[in-house]
Write a structure and sequence with these properties.
heterotetramer; A mainly alpha (359); B alpha/beta (265); C mainly alpha (311); D alpha/beta (663); A: 359 residues; mainly alpha; two-stranded antiparallel ribbon; C: two-stranded antiparallel sheet; 2 strands; 74% helix; 3% strand
Chain lengths: 359, 265, 311, 663
């Protein structure tokens, strides 16, 4: 209905292959960015920024990373938490070891370090596939968390095993990490990182690299036939995915919570991210954001609903109920639309484009 | 039709020498030698289980024969991986369509160009400058193939939604996008109706004609084989029993026996 | 240098010095491995018959144990509690088939896998909502005294557990080989289409297999709970059972048993002899490392069938 | 050519630089709006575009190439194929050299093609692809003058080793080489062109006899294209989709001449099968189609809406009903209540806008229909959506004659004459006209020319019509079919029949009245529509014969006929030919029985003879008539149907002063 595409014809391949070939979509994304950059900082209070927007963005980044690996390259991974931990601890070591290093560079280098670790743990993907691989990635999950727990070097010999973010600023005096950091600065910093990385991810998946990933995912035999080197392609997926997850982990530790212990990145975190991409939509950039939003908002919603209707329920019961509802919702989603929220979005959009016709 | 210019068939492009292949105790190929000459259309026929597909799999590196060598473009080898075969200029299609079901027709054909795309990771992430230029150049090339195979209307349709005949055409498109010197087609017309078969035959001839591509194909439909191919190789129980022009092969007693003795679909 | 010494010299030296101790560790490990085997067995049964990678197996073990112990706490005799718990697990199998599997039939494996994770969350919440989240001590009268057999210290309980597991596996083997239902199950595992074409109702098979997996889980839960009390951590045993699957192969019953024993023994030995060098707790990941190394040489697992790719 | 020769000498020197030929317009466009798009074609997945400067280059290269091949002034260039930029450029290229393009219908069979090419003495042909080349090769032996065939699409032609076959690109390459040696040649040729020169020969696909070649001069084409463009305020920003045959006069004016005159861009669809999708992508601002295309689109809309969900369907029908009531008046800027305007705006957001978008009509400023009468329902459907669809009157022999001005659009007129167009109604009601667009003559047919075109420039259209008091021309029939009632009143049978046929219940109608005291008619009901109606109203019937004889059905039809009578009463010229009596035929008129032509046109005379007894009954006193007629069944067997048919008298409406009907 909202889509009026008559007259939007493409005279070049560049225009035809644009990320948003439909004018209305371009308006939509521009509006979304405008809201994210202007309306949210102006209208959002500290609670909103710190407990909803920032975790949403951090989760979205991690989901994006996992989606590149699982949704696009078809390699199921249960080690996301471990890679996030690598990012967090690498950032910590870099930031404390090189106090003069710009925090942006710190995040990026930590991402690269995580990518290298991801590369290492991606090697089994040459020989094993599917669930075997998924289980194998658990090895990285357990091993990495164990390592950060056991070797105090990673926490600079902190007695509690907790790392806490030192004070760092961007552009001179905008503190984005540490106790002094202003929520709006933090938010804008994360937002910019996520926006740029999301754009880069979109670019990757619509070009040569994305096509080789999807080829491997859809039919690895045929992929080899057209000259795709399976190991190289899979390893690249592991590396890129880990890069994203590493930065997400770093932001989690440094900007969202300000300090973490390795347990924050245990296997539950991995599952949480996996849920995001399943519910959001495998193989969809948008889906990573939708899934992250869903998983971040659902507990808040479940937390607040009984109170809103005036019910007093013991905390334990609430936790258990949440767990049940969460589980049931996942099954429900998989049954209703196994391809996730992104697919629902797509269907809705398609309907709007065809309106008033049914097809 | 006008006067069809003589197709120039050149020297051997590929030589398979004394190939033997076995799985466990089962012999798939025994001492098979064959040649594929430049610019020709070679048909490999034989009853079911004769080892035809195994032969293609050996040529493009899926199977590694226990004995024998393959010489392609003058280079002799014993082992190689399929992606290396692709790099040397061998493309193929499969008996059961092996497309990337999650992608559109356009993207599927574009994957055929992956080998020729060079821009590195960082350019790709920016999707700008050289990467964009490269992408658009290949798109332009791929569009010519889409035009050639007359699949414009399904350009942006996910291939999973296409009827079988069209999927086969898209798969041919993907192979063509690789600009192969040697094209291996495993039953390109299996499961097609008469009209689709005619279309496909025309495309195969046109490919051979317009691009000079050497083609080796496996086909069951005898009339198609007789019409299309310059030369026919007959396999039976993993052995080569005949090799020659279609007419002489048709009169070959061994071939007749092989076909009479075994019922094939 | 010191580290290398601790990794490559000291452990072997201490093994050599005290072979009885090594044997004790080994046997202790093997007996723990039996537990892993039981959980892995549940996985394999379901995977074979329905192609579902059932992540909820660990939670099913917990849930079964909770039900059992809850019945005991209500004053039921052991046999009655067992029957009730087994019935509950069977009912759950029906419910799962009806609510989860049937609507998702023909979906990709990854989707079904995700659904079982959802199931995990649901059962976790449900079980603790009904039975509470505390540790429930469980004592069904299995003796726990240490025995010295041939100079080696063995726990009586472990022997009983091994015996129970052994009989369960034997019973299952008979069930699969000798009964009509068992044969049908094997047919389904081999080829869904073929099984359907000879008139075996797939849905019935699924219910049976999930129920059997539930009962196997119940046995595992009772044994584990008798040892450590019934508590949430039982669900985590499932995570230990996963490397067992890699080792043994997803579709192999003997693989699950042998794999469980290897993992159990391996990680105990590693923990005892290499733990000190690395700060301990390597049990957390050792099994995975072992499985991974193993995979590099045999991607299809110990007893898995070799995958020949047909093109 | 004789015309052009004599007039050239008389031309004053000052007009030498005037933009009086298409090639001069091309150069002018290239200079003035060189970077604006001139042509687009959906090819290889995108709309390949050529600016005016690029188009000029393409044309010049090809023109030079033709010259290099030996194409000379006065030579004819055959053009065969779908709407392709290269074919349009070939037309211009021929005109640059003082040659004459002869577009040929691309779906013509080889024999038809042979006739035109033979008759036009074509030396060179530009053919689109292998299909057209094969057709040409089939008849080449009988075309001794044909020297060269140039093809656009090389697919499949690689091995056609004929020396006279040339690839389009190669000709252009030769052209570039030629231009290097003769840099001033082409501009000299273009400068020699005059407005009175022959611009094109368009062969009419004559329904009877052989096609006739209509010779049009540049003046004919350009002046009329300009007049029409001025009337509508067309400019270079229009978007047009060229999808009708190049050989058709309509396409030549709307997609070719007007583009050169105003500088707008013409887009060519990817193929015949993708026209609708391409239409949607381009979203033209200016659109031309015969009624049957509008009808096809409407049918598709309705069918697709039937498959929509219940709520959506309700909403659609609700808002379409609103649109029928107020959409037309809003488009015509007539007074409409604020509330209705508000509702219409809601409808526009929910239904009309998206619907137009889905059809590709979002941006249409002007849509034309011509060629035959358009049903009032069809017409008002589009207008009620806010699409400014208008009728016009045009002939191959004269380009455009009349267009409906904005705000004065009615389904039954063809509008008012353009500037410089004079129209007279002859004694026998025939429309006769004179205008700058009037053709030079039929090629090599002085006799046919003389029959149509008088020495003083007046041309017989062959159509019967009259002017209403509003100054709009109404076309009622072919002139030869129009007769008079016994009292001298004008009687236009096809006009009556068309009016009747616009009702969904009436499938065919046969009107009688020439030299009779009054008009009367046979009606053929539409079995589907009436059957549907019967079902909804609980009327039961067993067979077509029974259905056709039902009183209720007679009532239904009578209402239709009376409506027609009321319409007629509003037209002073036709008020006298109101229908007095009718009967419903017992069987469907059938081409197998010779009652219809194969193109489903009523053979009025034959039917009159065959059902003589029924005609007599209509003009008698009886209330019923008996008939026994032979029919051919589906399986070819013959049989006889006997029936007694009722005859109804119809109320005659009082003739009133012509008022604009509402809606």
């Amino acid at each position: 209905m909202l889509y009026r595409e008559a007259g939007q014809f493409k005279t070049s391949y560049a225009a035809d292959q644009a990320v948003f070939p439909i004018r209305q979509d371009r308006f939509l994304i521009a509006a979304a960015l405008l809201i994210a950059y202007v309306a949210v900082p102006l209208l959002g209070n500290e609670y909103w920024l710190l407990t909803i927007m920032i975790p949403f963005l951090v989760f979205a980044l991690a989901a994006l990373g996992l989606n590149l690996l699982t949704g696009y390259a078809g390699q199921v991974s249960l080690g996301t938490g471990g890679f996030m931990a690598v990012g967090a601890f690498a950032t910590y070591k870099l930031a404390t070891g090189f106090p003069g290093l710009n925090i942006v560079a710190v995040f990026l280098i930590a991402g690269v370090i995580t990518a290298l670790v991801g590369l290492l743990f991606g090697f089994p993907s040459l020989r094993i596939k599917g669930f075997y691989l998924a289980v194998a990635t658990l090895a990285s999950q357990f091993f990495l968390i164990w390592m950060f727990n056991k070797f105090p070097w990673f926490t600079n010999y902190s007695s509690s095993g907790v790392i806490s973010a030192p004070q760092r600023a961007v552009l001179g005096h905008f503190y984005v990490t540490g106790a002094e950091a202003n929520p709006v600065d933090k938010y804008l910093f994360v937002l910019s990182f996520v926006a740029v990385l999301a754009f880069a991810a979109k670019n990757l998946v619509r070009g040569r690299i994305g096509r080789s990933w999807m080829a491997i995912r859809d039919m690895d035999i045929a992929a080899e036939i057209i000259g795709i080197h399976p190991l190289k392609t899979k390893l690249l997926a592991f590396a890129v995915s880990s890069f994203y997850c590493g930065i997400a982990g770093a932001m989690w530790a440094f900007i969202y919570t300000g300090g973490v212990e390795p347990l924050a990145f245990d296997i539950d975190r991995s599952f949480q991210i996996l849920f995001m991409i399943i519910i959001g939509g495998l193989g969809s950039i948008l889906g990573s954001f939708l899934g992250a939003g869903f998983i971040v908002l659902l507990p808040i919603f479940l937390d607040n609903t009984p109170r809103l209707v005036g019910l007093e329920i013991p905390v334990n019961t609430v936790t258990n109920l949440q767990s049940m509802i969460f589980g049931a919702l996942i099954v429900f989603f998989l049954i209703v639309e196994p391809r996730g929220l992104a697919r629902l979005w797509q269907i809705g959009k398609e309907k709007l484009r065809l309106w008033p016709f049914p097809y | 039709m006008g006067t069809l210019a003589e197709r120039r068939i050149g020297p051997p492009l590929l030589k398979a020498e004394q190939i033997s292949l076995a799985f466990g105790g089962v012999r798939a190929l025994s001492d098979v030698s064959l040649e594929i000459r430049e610019h020709e259309i070679l048909a490999i026929i034989g009853p079911n289980g004769a080892g035809k597909t195994s032969m293609l799999n050996v040529i493009n590196g899926f199977y590694h024969p226990q004995r024998g060598t393959i010489t392609f473009k003058g280079e002799t080898r014993r082992r190689m991986r399929p992606h290396q075969a692709a790099e040397t200029g061998i493309a193929r299609t499969f008996q059961n369509v092996a497309l990337f079901r999650g992608m559109t027709t356009l993207d599927n054909v574009m994957t055929g160009r992956l080998l020729r795309m060079r821009r590195n990771f960082l350019w790709q992430a920016l999707h700008w400058g050289p990467a964009l230029k490269e992408e658009l150049e290949h798109r332009s090339f791929v569009e010519r193939i889409i035009d050639f195979l007359e699949i414009q209307a399904i350009r942006k349709v996910p291939v999973g939604q296409l009827p079988y005949g069209l999927q086969k055409r898209v798969e041919l498109g993907r192979a063509l996008a690789m600009e192969p010197t040697l094209l291996l087609l495993d039953e390109p017309m299996a499961g097609m109706n008469v009209e689709e078969k005619e279309d496909m035959s025309r495309f195969i001839l046109d490919v051979n004609d317009e691009f000079g591509t050497t083609i080796a194909l496996i086909e069951h439909d005898m009339s198609v084989v007789m019409d299309l191919s310059d030369r026919v190789v007959v396999l039976d129980y993993g052995r080569k029993i005949a090799d020659g022009p279609p007419d002489s092969v048709r009169r070959n007693q061994d071939v007749i026996d092989a076909y009479l003795g075994v019922s094939h679909d | 240098m010191e580290f290398l010494d601790a990794v490559f010299v000291t452990p072997f030296a201490s093994m050599w010095d005290n072979p009885e101790f090594l044997l004790e560790v080994l046997i202790g490990g093997l007996l723990t491995g039996v537990m892993y085997s039981l959980v892995a067995l549940g996985f394999v049964l379901i995977y074979k018959a329905s192609g579902v990678f059932n992540f909820a197996q660990g939670t099913m073990v917990l849930f079964a144990a909770l039900t059992f112990v809850g019945m005991l706490e209500k004053g039921m005799p052991v046999w009655a509690a067992f029957l009730v718990a087994a019935t509950v697990m069977t009912a759950m199998a029906f419910a799962i088939e009806w609510v989860v599997l049937r609507p998702l039939v023909n979906q990709e494996q990854i989707i079904l896998f995700m659904a079982t994770i959802g199931l995990t969350f649901f059962l976790d919440g449900f079980g603790q909502l009904v039975w509470g989240g505390d540790v429930h001590p469980l004592d069904i009268g299995i003796p726990k005294d240490p025995l010295i057999i041939g100079g080696v210290l063995v726990n009586e309980f472990d022997l009983v557990a091994a015996a129970v597991c052994g009989s369960l596996v034997a019973a299952l083997a008979v069930f699969f080989q000798k009964t009509a239902v068992g044969r049908a199950l094997r047919a389904v595992a081999d080829d869904h289409q073929a099984a359907l074409s000879v008139g075996i109702p797939l849905k019935t098979i699924w219910v049976i297999v999930w129920a059997v997996a539930g009962v196997v889980g119940l046995v595992a839960g009772i044994l584990w709970g008798s040892n450590l009390g019934v508590q949430f951590s039982i669900a985590l045993v499932a995570l230990k059972a996963l490397p067992v699957l890699i080792l043994g192969g997803f579709t192999s019953v003997p693989g699950a048993i042998v794999g469980g024993l290897i993992v159990g023994a391996g990680e105990k030995v590693a923990e005892v002899f290499w733990g000190p060098a690395t700060g301990g707790a390597i049990e957390d990941w050792f099994a995975y490392g072992l499985a991974l190394v193993f995979l590099l040489f045999r991607p299809q697992g110990l007893f898995g069938e070799r995958i020949i790719e047909r093109v | 050519m004789a015309v052009a020769e004599t007039e050239r000498k008389a031309r004053p020197a000052v007009r030498r630089t005037a933009l009086d030929t298409i090639p001069k317009l091309l150069l002018d466009n290239a200079a003035r709006r060189g970077r604006r798009p001139a042509m687009r074609e959906k090819d290889l997945g995108i709309w390949q575009s050529w600016s005016w400067a690029e188009a000029a280059r393409q044309v010049q290269d090809f023109a030079n190439g033709l010259a290099a091949l030996g194409f000379r002034r006065g030579d004819k260039l055959g053009i065969i194929g779908d709407n392709r930029p290269r074919l349009y450029w070939a037309i211009t290229a021929a005109q640059c050299l003082g040659g004459v393009p002869v577009p040929v219908y691309q779906d013509a069979v080889a024999a038809e093609m042979e006739f035109v090419l033979e008759h036009a003495e074509v030396r060179f042909v530009v053919a689109e692809d292998q299909e057209q080349v094969d057709k040409l090769l089939a008849v080449r032996e009988r075309l001794p003058r044909l020297e060269a065939i140039i093809y656009d699409d090389a697919r499949g032609l690689r091995h056609y080793a004929y020396p006279f076959l040339h690839a389009y690109e190669r000709v252009q390459q030769q052209g570039r080489d030629f231009a290097r040696l003769n840099p001033d040649f082409l501009h000299g040729e273009i400068a020699q062109g005059r407005g009175a020169d022959l611009a094109v020969i368009l062969y009419t696909s004559g329904t009877t006899g052989q096609p006739k070649g209509v010779m049009l001069t540049f003046d004919n084409v350009i002046i009329m294209a300009r007049r029409a463009a001025e009337r509508e305020g067309l400019d270079e920003t229009e978007e047009v989709l060229a999808y009708l045959p190049i050989a058709w006069a309509g396409d030549h004016i709307f997609s070719y001449a007007q583009s050169y005159c105003t500088g707008f861009c013409v887009s060519c669809p990817e193929s015949g099968a993708t026209v609708m999708a391409d239409l949607r992508e381009i979203g033209p601002t200016y659109f031309f189609a015969p009624p049957r295309i509008y009808e096809t689109i409407l049918t598709r809309v309705m069918i697709r809406m039937e498959d929509a969900g219940w709520a959506k369907r309700r909403m659609f029908h609700h808002f379409m009903a609103l649109a029928r009531r107020v959409g037309g008046p809003i488009l015509d800027r007539a007074p409409v209540s604020f509330w209705d305007r508000l509702l219409y705006a809601v409808g526009a957001a929910l239904i009309y806008g998206p619907l137009k978008n889905a059809l590709g009509f979002s941006r249409i400023r002007i849509a034309y229909t011509a060629g035959e009468a358009i049903g009032p329902d069809l017409f008002s459907f589009y207008r009620s959506l806010g699409i400014n669809i208008k009728q016009l009157y045009a002939m191959t022999e004269a380009s455009i004659l009349c267009v409906q001005p904005d705000g004065q659009v009615k389904p039954d007129t063809v509008g008012t004459p353009l500037a410089d167009v004079e129209i007279r109604i002859a004694e026998n009601s025939e429309v006769v006209y004179r205008s700058p667009g009037v053709f030079a003559g039929y090629y090599k047919s002085p006799q046919a020319t003389a029959e149509t075109k008088q020495p003083d420039g007046w041309v017989h259209s062959g159509d019967a019509g009259f002017f209403g008091d509003d100054g709009h021309l109404r076309i009622i029939d072919r002139a030869k079919d129009v007769g008079k009632l016994r009292n001298g009143t004008l009687f236009a049978p096809k006009f009556l029949e068309n009016k009747l046929k616009f009702f969904p219940y009436i499938k065919e109608a046969v009107a009688f009245g020439a030299d009779r005291p009054f008009a009367a008619c046979f009606i053929n009901i539409d079995a589907d529509a009436v059957g549907n109606w019967a079902e909804r109203n609980g009327v039961t019937y067993g067979s077509y014969l029974e259905l056709a004889g039902l009183d209720a059905v007679y009532d239904l039809v009578q209402e239709c006929v009376e409506t027609v009578n009321r319409d007629l009463a509003a037209e002073p010229h036709l008020a006298g030919s109101q229908i007095h009596r009718f009967l419903i035929l017992h069987k469907e008129l059938d081409a197998d029985d010779g009652e219809l032509t194969r193109t489903r046109k009523v053979r009025r005379r034959y039917i009159g003879e065959r059902y003589q007894s029924l005609v007599d009954a209509l003009y008698g006193e009886a209330r019923t008539a008996r008939i026994a007629s032979e029919v051919t069944f589906e399986d070819g067997r013959k049989g006889t149907i006997r029936a007694e048919l009722a005859i109804r008298d119809v109320k005659i409406a009082a003739s009133v002063a012509p008022l604009r009907r509402a809606g």
